[in-house]
Write a structure and sequence with these properties.
Blueprint lengths: L7 E7 L5 E4 L5 E2 L11 H12 L5 E12 L2 E4 L2 H6 L17
Antiparallel strand pairs: 1-2, 1-4, 2-3, 4-5
Length: about 100
């Protein structure tokens, strides 16, 4: 029996800056998970991932990450993604320095 599809977001790293980014519904890339497109259909998720992977001049390492619908947009379901969205952990800078994270 096949497992039920769980909602996903397309995530990658920005090629030049290295920041974690997410694919939005308008095909732009955002650094804020809550602005990402939440994909609830497996076929759509695969198509969006293929679209992202074709942008090798902008991104690297695109993949589908599990997410759930939250009150302000997608939220991670796994510790790895919760950790990635806050940025580097070696010191307080970037996303970690922002008050709305």
């Amino acid at each position: 029996m096949a497992r039920a599809f769980t909602p996903k977001v397309v995530t990658a790293n920005a090629l030049l800056e290295g920041d974690v980014i997410y694919l939005a519904a308008d095909d732009s890339w955002t650094r804020t998970l809550s602005d990402a497109e939440l994909l609830t259909d497996e076929a759509d998720a695969q198509i969006r991932l293929l679209h992202a992977e074709q942008q090798s001049e902008r991104i690297v390492g695109a993949y589908l990450a599990d997410a759930i619908a939250g009150p302000n947009g997608p939220e991670p379901t796994h510790f790895r993604e919760a950790f990635r969205r806050t940025g580097p952990s070696n010191y307080f800078h970037g996303k970690q320095a922002e008050t709305h994270v």
